[in-house]
Amino acid sequence: MAKNEVKDKPPLDFVGQREGEKLLFVFRRHIVAMRKGFYLLLIPLVITSLPTLIWGYNPELSLLPVAGLSVGLILFSYHFILWYFTIYIVTDQRIRQVTQSGLFGKDVIELRLSKIQNISYNIPGLNGEIFKFGTIVIQTFVGDLVIHNVEHPDEIYNKLQDAVNNVIETQTERNEKAIE
After folding, report:
1. Strands (DSSP E) along 79-154, which ranges?
2. What are phi and psi of 60, to 5 degrees?
3. Residue 27: in which H helix or E strand, if any?
4. Tens digits of residue pLDDT in 135-150
């Protein structure tokens, strides 16, 4: 195979994909959305380390930080699962929000791109600017889809705008052909 030649990648599929639907991109919330999980990891560790720091080395007390870390890891893993399995899938036809609720629950919201009226985004101050996260608001006739803590909201916004514009152009072409 030549150096500049590109291999054809198989099309990516997801559960619930319709026939003829093309996956444009997938995104998730920024890691900062998991900050509560990080706090729940650190707080038990710090609290259980205090007796060892106050009373010095004691063989019985040395197991407390290990227990605190174990509890913290369990609490953190719950928040990690919620963050990791919450994704946003954008195709050439719709946006699909798959939200993990609890360990076994899942909520799915679908929004057709043709129904989108407006898309806007907000970067919340210095933290949002430094860590590159923000909020995207997708407005429709029915209501708003607000996605908090999106990683690189400006890039996602531009990709969403392009997808919506492509759908509008396609519909306009179909309407013009139907009129002829």
Report:
1. 87-91, 94-101, 105-112, 116-122, 133-140, 144-151
2. -70, -35
3. strand 23-28
4. 999 998 888 889 999 9
Report the predicted TM-score, pTM, of the whole model to 2 decimal places.
Answer: 0.77
Q: Is 48 exposed, middle or buried (0-12, 13-18, 19+ CB in 10 A)?
A: buried
Structure tokens at 151: 């990683």
**Share of residues in the chain with pLDDT > 90 (%):** 37
Is residue 147 within 8 Å of residue 159, measured between CB atoms?
A: no
What type of residue is 48? T
Residues in the chain: 180
- HSE-up (13 A, CA, CB side) for residue 105: 4
What CATH architecture applies to the domain 23-35+81-179? Roll (2.30)
What pLDDT was estimated at residue 2? 46
How big is the chain by its Cα radius of gyration, in Å?
Answer: 23
**What does the pLDDT look like over 77-105, one tens digit per residue?**
999 999 999 999 998 888 998 888 888 88
Are 29 and 148 in contact, with CB atoms under 8 Å apart? yes
Q: How far apart are CA 105 and CA 113, in angstroms?
A: 26
Mean pLDDT, residues 149-163: 92
